[in-house]
Amino acid sequence: MKRTTRLIAAMLCIMLAFGCLAPASAAAAKLLQTGGSFYLTASTATATIIEPVRVDYAHGQTVKEALQASGHTFSGIESGFITAIDGVRGNFVRFYDYDESTGECGYDLDAAASDITAIGFAENEVASKEMIALITLMGDFNYSANGVLNYPAAKTAYADALRGLRNANAEQAQVLFSALDSAMRDYAAYLEGDKYDVVFNVTQNGITIENPVITITDAYGNASTYSGTTAQAYAGVSTYSVSDGGHNRIEGRVTVSPDAESGEYSASAIDAALPYGEWFGDIIFHADSGALEKLYEREQDYGTHTATYKVEDTNHGNVYMYLTRGADLPSDSVKTYACYVDINGRDNSDGSVPANNKGWESRYTVLTNLWKKNSMTERSFDIEARYYVGEQTQIQSFEINLERIPTLADLQVFGSGTRLPIEFAPLTGEYSLTTVAESVVISPFPVLSDYRILVNGNDTQREVVLKGIGENTAVDVTVEYTVNAEENITRTFSQSFTSSRLALAFVRKPKYGFLIPP
Fold first, then answer.
1. What is the pTM for the complete model shown?
2. C-alpha span between 411 and 477 (Å, rounded)
3. What H or E segment, with its residue span, contains residue 65?
4. How far is CA 375 from its chain centroid?
5. Is 473 within 8 Å of 501 (Cβ atoms)?
6. What Rg value do the Cα atoms of the chain yield, rounded?
7. Is the separation of the CB atoms in 50 and 166 below 8 Å?
8. Which of 30-39, 232-241, 370-379, 432-441 has the lowest mean pLDDT?
9. What residues does 54 pair with on adjacent strands?
């Protein structure tokens, strides 16, 4: 199979010599004078407070103003003597770009932000043009999107440099710069290197698929997508995903080993049999463990493999899931996974963790830590059924959308100054009340303060008086929450009740103390 060679761009696309150290964004800002960014780092003598991070500034801002708007805190910055950074106290010295005319690094916080490329705070005397160069390179590394963050040599060099920010002198900073620069250049050369054809024989239910979607991901996370049966991969081990363009795919690994002498690579086509039919039956979400009773409202579409559920805002973050097997499930050994990262950072899609397998037809399967209690956070993720066949994994997915319902914490109704009895429940939609009053006071109490409350279509925040209550008067209370104002996406929930007023006016007979018609 053929290989493709790409020319190495001049100087590997970037110049990192001392005469050309400014990041592109800062250099552009200096030219255009419309704003830009510089890098910031801070450390004590023993620990890093802020790794090299980009700080944006507006046109005309000073270094001080940019730091104050950075999202980080600098106690004492107004006086010029900073005693704590992000709450960490220290005896800090500061320094930024080296001035050849003075032979020193700058430190004046009232200087124009556009005049600097990097600023450092440290407890030890580490200021030098070599240190500024190191900070700038580390910032470039942190904001790289080409996979270099996963390149082992660069990761090691960066970790060494991070420690060096605390106490490295000029000579040591130069050594650390060279190590990271070399690793980044080696990685850039890898990206400009040869890629080799990898051919697939793709079928689905015995039928050849001529235009599958193939994604090849290298060892450093760089993904390339191809349409058709031929893809390309770097030498070494890569993963592949072959899809029908919808919810069926197969995954595996391919090792590309070019001939040592000719540099050519050839191998047989990789057989890739895609899932077909329906692996999923009903996908039910419910509120209680062990009981399929409190079911969340569901819209499940087998054509698009999407399902939407409505979950109230007071849910504490856990929902239960009940999966039934579809008619075409190839084996009872197929495992299921909910592919989401919870609010604590745990990846529930990780197949190497046995507990992540959700199983089939269990009333006790729970998805945890989806959101915080009393919130309108919505979640969208895939449920995957995975069938491990040899070195490959067949996967069918179903997209899950958990929408939230805004509700009331309480709903109070008063007639003639007396609170009317109502067995309020957040998800109860209809009530019936009886009163002798000609007007009632409606007092809704939302779960979240940013809800919009409407009574019979009219906005209200605390309470509303409804006059002219007749023999059968309908009242509608709607709770509304805007999910996305730009796209006009809202979530609503309505509670209505019928307030009936008795046709006869009753009075109390003093002697006997009961009501009779007048």
1. 0.78
2. 9
3. helix 63-68
4. 16
5. yes
6. 33
7. no
8. 30-39
9. 39
